[in-house]
Amino acid sequence: MAKESKTKVLFKGLKRLSDDEKEKAEQKKLERKNKKLNDFTPKGYRAKRMGVYTFWTLFIGMFLFVGLLVVANATSNAEEVEKVEINKVTSQEAVVFAQNFVEAYFTWSATDEGIVARQNELKRYLATGLDSNAGLVVDGLIWSSSYVNSEVRDVQALDEEVGQITFYVKSKLTKGEQEQVSEKYFVVPVAYDGKTFGVYELPKYTHFEEHTTIKSVSNKRLKSVSSEETTTLNSFIETFFKTYADGEREQLNYLLSKSGSIEGLNGTFSIKELNQVEVFKDEDNDTYIAFVEVTLVDPKTEISTKSNYQLTMTKSNDKYIVKAMDDLTGKEIKSKTAEEISKELLIETQAIEEADAKAAATPVSAKSEQ
């Protein structure tokens, strides 16, 4: 019985081994079949697959290229903005520095102690190696100076770190009992090293043209308007300005092409009168342009002032509305000729000479009576 059991166990073991071998054989056969299927490539498959790879490669490459361009442009723009920001020689800080230097420069006492005090004050501004008196010749100096005021006339950047600031300077010179006022145009050379400002070379005097060279500012492409239309427009303009000065916001919005585009004076001024109204038509934009001189009056003080306005108007649903106030696009600036400037200066000089001659001819007794 025991022998039979051992035989059964052995038989079962051999059968299991045989089944395992069969299973392995089937597995190998299946793997060979799958390999054949995998190795089989339909006609054109490789070309299609290569095309897909090529397309996506080019697409991704193009995307990366565009992205790099955008980043490069953004970096370039950022650098330009940064350059503007770091150009400190034209900044308000540079102007204040230069103005403080001007005050120190034009302040001295014609004594040894006064000259030393001025030198000590100027040390804060002058670059290393510059004349401690900043160019002022102190040998034989007999006039003392006190700074009165100064005004900026020009600011120029010669480089990112170097500039020139021009001032109109008024100072008072004294010598004993004598006094005289000095008015000069003074150029301060300013440098910036990333930390502080400094005067990098000796300052100098210059001349600055105070008389404007602008002759007139006019608007291009304007045509005259018929008298009938002008009358209607003048009436609308008068209504607009009265509403602009004293009306409620809703009333003003009714006269505008876009609500809220113009803020009224909210009663701070009233319209006294329209002194002058000139209306033209801009045919290129199908709008009307009005140049208006208005007299405004402060209701609290009754002080009157004259102001110029420019209205841009259009017609909508048979009524006029205001598109903009003081839209200055399309302006044409005309400059005076050299001959016109010379003529104005000559007239001004002659007037001064005549006034001086008249004052000199007036008897002392008459002056005291005046």
From TrEMBL:
Where exactly are the transmembrane stretches of this chain? Answer: 52-72
> What protein does this entry describe?
Conjugative transposon protein TcpC
Q: Its domain of life?
A: Bacteria
Q: Which organism is it from?
A: Ureibacillus xyleni
Q: Which CDD domains match?
A: TcpC_C, TcpC_N
Q: Which UniProt keywords apply?
A: Membrane, Transmembrane, Transmembrane helix
Task: Identify the InterPro entries for this entry.
Answer: TcpC, TcpC_C
